[in-house]
Amino acid sequence: IFVFIDAFGYDIAKDLDFMSDILPTKAPLRTVFGFSSACIPSILSGRTPCEHKHWNFFYYAPETSPFKLLRIFRFLPGIVANRSRLRCQLSKMVKKRLNFSGYFQLYNIPFKYYHLFDTCEKRDLFKPGGLNVGKTIVDFLVENSVPHLFTNWADPEEERIAQMTQAVREGEISFAFLYTSDLDAMLHFNSRDSDVVRNKIKWYEERFREVYQLASQKYDMVDMYLFSDHGMAEIHRTYDMISDIEALGLKFGADYVAMYDSTVGRFWFMNDEARKRITETLSKIDCARILSDEELKELGVYFEDRQFGELMCLMDAGALIVPSYMGDKPLFGMHGYHPDDKDSYALFMTNTQPDPFPKCITDMYGLMRSAAGEWIENSGHR
Question: Residue 29: beta bridge partners?
Answer without folding.
Answer: 346
